[in-house]
Amino acid sequence: MKILVAPDKFKGSLTAAEVASAVASGLADVHPGVAVQQLPVADGGDGTVDAAVAAGYERVRVPARGPTGAPVTASYAVRGDTAVVELAEASGLHRLPGAPAPLTATSAGTGDVIAAAVRAGCRRIVLGVGGSACTDGGAGMLTALGARLFDRAGRDLPFGGAALAGLALLDRAELFEVDIELASDVDNPLYGPRGAAFVYGPQKGASSEDVETLDAALRHWASIAGPDFASRPGAGAAGGVGFAAMAVLGATMRPGIELLLDLLGFDAALTGASLVITGEGSLDEQTLSGKAPAGVARAAAAKGIPCIAVSGRCRLPSPQLHAAGISAAYALTDLEPDPARCMAEAAPMLRRLAHRIAVDHVNNRY
């Protein structure tokens, strides 16, 4: 019997690779001879580069600018001429040195990483766009890739979403030629009530006044950079990075988990599997909207392979789980009701959960 263990991270406690390792160890405790393949996954958000590295890509570390412009060291994953770039690596909320900077945060660091990959010979860039700290419409990313943004006096435009209100000219003459595929499940437009500023700005520290300022600036940005792209699904991803990638760089967009599963060789890994175990920190309504466990379960179901899930907590009733292709779910809170303890002791508790899975789902098959 072969079991494929393909979880996403447990945010705040374990990486996807650590989740997979804990589950595999628990299965081996009960059935030492069972064949277990570990394939950590991601859906385009933070942890995407780690998942690619776990699947055999090489990690490359490069200097980049963080969301405030301060220098950071970021990384991308590479195999052949394909690079996997994670926006959160350079431009994520965790890169903010202190307080949020909703009006001035920049995506320039993401452009720095893409530029480094292109200079190293990569021709295909897979860009995961979750976890952004900025709402700059992707303007910072474009400047790092060779674009120039000028105000009405002919000066270079400052970084940040608010500054876009003063944009007079976008010069694309020196832009890199690069093939970008966006990995994202966000379907928001660039601006408006469902746009980047209104929906995601408050999560990045924007006040109600900041949101209005950013939304107006994004409208102006779209009028110059590509008005036909502003309403496209995903234009609002990562504070408008999706818009810039599509409107200016000609990027295509695919559901994050589908694109990442293809890159990680998930279909081949399913060969010979009798059971798939997936999971993430919280199984909830968002899981059903294109998150990694739902994508893994869907791919397993297409091959007629049962799929179960592990999580820190599960807020989905059985009918919703079954509709998503997940036949059973095991949560750390089944063992310990205290969420803080679950996070602190996630690895050993996951190993114990895997003992239950081995008894419930492996004994009668092995």
UniProtKB/TrEMBL annotation:
<dbReference type="InterPro" id="IPR036129">
    <property type="entry name" value="Glycerate_kinase_sf"/>
</dbReference>
<comment type="similarity">
    <text>Belongs to the glycerate kinase type-1 family.</text>
</comment>
<dbReference type="InterPro" id="IPR018197">
    <property type="entry name" value="Glycerate_kinase_RE-like"/>
</dbReference>
<dbReference type="InterPro" id="IPR018193">
    <property type="entry name" value="Glyc_kinase_flavodox-like_fold"/>
</dbReference>
<dbReference type="GO" id="GO:0008887">
    <property type="term" value="F:glycerate kinase activity"/>
</dbReference>
<keyword id="KW-0808">Transferase</keyword>
<dbReference type="Pfam" id="PF02595">
    <property type="entry name" value="Gly_kinase"/>
</dbReference>
<protein>
    <submittedName>
        <fullName>Glycerate kinase</fullName>
    </submittedName>
</protein>
<dbReference type="InterPro" id="IPR004381">
    <property type="entry name" value="Glycerate_kinase"/>
</dbReference>
<dbReference type="GO" id="GO:0031388">
    <property type="term" value="P:organic acid phosphorylation"/>
</dbReference>
<keyword id="KW-0418">Kinase</keyword>
